[in-house]
Amino acid sequence: MRRVHEYISGKIARGEKLHFTLVDPDKPFTREGLEKTARLMAEAGTDAFLIGGSIGVTPEEAGEVAGVLKETGLPVIVFPGNINCLTPRADAVLFMVLMNSNEPYYLMMAQVVAAPLVKKYGLEPLPTGYIVVYPDTAVSHMGRVQPIPVGKPEVVLAYALAGEMMGFKYIYLEAGSGSQQTVPLSFPAMVKKYTSLITIVGGGIRSPEQAREMVRSGADVLVTGTIVERDPELAVKIVKAVKSP
Ligand SMILES: CC(C)=CCC/C(C)=C/CC/C(C)=C/CC/C(C)=C/COP(=O)(O)OP(=O)(O)O
Ligand SMILES: O=P(O)(O)OC[C@@H](O)CO
Ligand SMILES: [Mg+2]
Questions:
Q1: 197 annotated as a binding-site residue
Q2: Is any atom of ligand 1 closer than 6 Å to the C-beta of 94?
Q3: Ligand 2 atom closest to Cα of residue 175
Q4: Which residues keep their CB under 5 angstroms from ion ligand 3?
Q5: Which neighbouring-strand residues pair with 221?
Q6: Is 176 annotated as contributing to ligand binding?
Q7: Measuring CA to CA, which residue among 171, 222, 213, 176 is closest to residue 194?
Q8: At which positions is sn-glycerol 1-phosphate bound (predicted)?
Q9: Average pLDDT of the chain to the nearest whole number
Q10: Among candidates 142, 162, 30, 69, which has minimal Cα distance to 174?
Q11: Crossing angle of the two packed helices 31-44 and 59-70, in degrees rounded to 10
């Protein structure tokens, strides 16, 4: 059963660009507030919800958030900072390797610890190479990241090719949540040109214009988190820009 992968890849095959809404269960929320945001984003046309955070998420919070988001009928995908984000109430998990980490835990041990849990929970694994471009965010600190030189898209391409050769289906080009900059447009462009990976891009996207140029450059899936928390109406405009680039 690869229902979520088929849902995502089917839409891409039909020429659609996708938007994922990131919800961090560590951020304070009320059930009513979360329901309202979820409904707003679903009506705007977001394609799925990601749940996860770098620090502080309890499995109970992850489960509660997943339960509320599932009421929209959209897929709920765990975007794990670590195994604490896993919950059986989600549909799938970005089964990630942080490819440019210097830390063995994020390269192999997190996956080894997670795999039996993913199996028990019945989560669909989405095999994903995760690349964090910039230093100075929670994820780059926690993940002991070796940043990618911004003027060198061939470096990111080499990672993407390696990921594709190892059988990953997704590559997530991450600026870092709350980043001041988005990933360089040349990065999704290069990956799209030379691989058949599904390209997810996120971090620092704050305007419909940025969203539009990122999908025009080759991103298949755009992720926004911070703007959904700060300005949901602007997030709705971003979804519309992704859907009509
Ligand atoms: C396979 C499993 C279960 C785990 C893999 C674990 C790996 C490789 C994690 C990569 C390192 C990491 C810390 C990723 C975090 C990704 C994430 C959920 C980011 C969401 O944003 P935050 O970093 O929480 O942003 P804020 O600072 O805005 O809260
Ligand atoms: O919070 P923002 O900056 O939108 O980032 C989203 C996501 O890519 C973080 O992992
Ligand atoms: Mg967080």
A1: no
A2: no
A3: 8
A4: 24, 53
A5: 18, 200
A6: yes
A7: 171
A8: 172-178, 203-204, 225-226
A9: 97
A10: 142
A11: 50
Consult the annotation and say whether 158 binds a ligand.
no
ipTM of the complex: 0.97
pLDDT digits (tens, 9 = 90+) for 206-236: 999 999 999 999 999 999 999 999 999 999 9
106-149 residue pLDDT tens: 999 999 999 999 999 999 999 999 999 999 999 999 999 999 99
- 32 burial level (CB within 10 Å; 0-12, 13-18, 19+): exposed
What pLDDT score does 1 carry?
Answer: 67
Closest residue by Cα to atom 28, ligand 1, is 177
> What residue type is assigned to position 177 of the chain?
S
Within 6 A (CB) of ligand 2 lie: 22, 174, 177-179, 202-205, 223-227
- The ligand 1 atom at the shortest distance from the C-alpha of residue 86 is 3
Backbone φ and ψ for 186, nearest 5 degrees, come out as -65, -20
Q: Using one digit for the tens of pLDDT, what is the confidence trace for 164-205?
A: 999 999 999 999 999 999 999 999 999 999 999 999 999 999
Question: Is 47 known to sit in a ligand binding site?
Answer: no
Residues 21, 239: Cα–Cα separation, whole Å: 9
CATH 3.90.25.10 fits 3-243, yes or no: no
Query: What pLDDT was estimated at residue 103?
Result: 98
* Amino acid, res. 95: F
pLDDT recorded at residue 138 = 95
Residue written as token pair 């040349």: 186
> Does the structure show a pLDDT above 90 at 245?
no
Nearest-angstrom CA–CA distance, 98 and 132: 8
Beta pairing partners, 129: 97, 171
